[in-house]
Amino acid sequence: MTMVAGVDARGTKHCETTALGVLLRHQGVDLSEPMLFGLGSGLSFIYWDSKHMGFPFLGGRSKPFELTRNLADRLELELLVQETTSPRKAWHNVSASLDAGHPVGLQLDSHYLDYFGSKVHFGGHIVAMYGYDDHQAHLVDTDQQGGAVSTSLTSLARARAARGPMAAKHRSFTLTAPTDLPSPQDQIIPAITACADAFLHPPIANLGHRGIEKAGRLVRTWLQRADVPQRDLPQAALLMEKGGTGGALFRNRYRDFLGECADLLDSRHLRTGHTLYTEAATLWTEAAELIRQAGESGETRFLMQAGTVLGDLSRMERAAMQALSCIEA
């Protein structure tokens, strides 16, 4: 058996920040989950639908692994990423790091993990691995999935080899902190303004505040769009609140990040953004509940109300990001 010593196998709300927390704490860097999420400019929005999808997808964060790259850049972390099409080499990449005493981050498809409660394909899931034996891999996942968990080596191999939307080629990664780590507080403003800029100026109408506005129009048609409304709409609502988002489609995480920042920096623009995201988080939970009720009842009026709430959210988040984009050092 190989087990990396001294790992703090603490699960948090979101998979990528959970894995980052494990890897960074092992390097002596202990930041809150909201701070990891915010410094990685993790907040975003996407409305994703196509003829090949069974139902539209609402995403509230940046694409998988972008948060990790952003955080590594801001804190000048050495990020070693390995990808391969060879399962044998993929295992060697991971086992070599573990044997050397370093926990490893993995991107994989959560559908194949033995312990995973919801058997939905998601190729952008990220976990930390800190040990293995002849049969089992020892991982850290979100607290919702159990925190410190284990899965068979066979299931892990399948999860890592899976292909599809957002999947990577057996991606594994490690982080090494420099001895002179930049002050996280000094990176707060660049992280916030970069996130605001991307949100306010999306390249296509499916992203950012334009994406939320589009979702507000299209959600009204979801009873007709769904194959099985009583299944698809409650599932969409559940993913918004419970799918590793920390609630309110990641808005709770960003609200808490801005709250931490407001304790560190004196900025009226920051306080405005925090106030607006506090309100937005409540409205996202309300929208999810309306979508759930529409699916269970089959009544369009709930979707009409959800559309109105999403329209309000588009304007509210745009105003919040406009304020946040004005923060100066």
Automatic annotation (TrEMBL):
Q: Which Pfam families match?
A: BtrH_N (PF14399), DUF4872 (PF16169)
Superkingdom is: Bacteria
Domain named Butirosin biosynthesis protein H N-terminal: which ranges?
14-142
Q: Outline the extent of the DUF4872 domain.
A: 155-324
InterPro entries in the record: BtrH_N, DUF4872
**Any idea what this protein is called?**
Lantibiotic ABC transporter
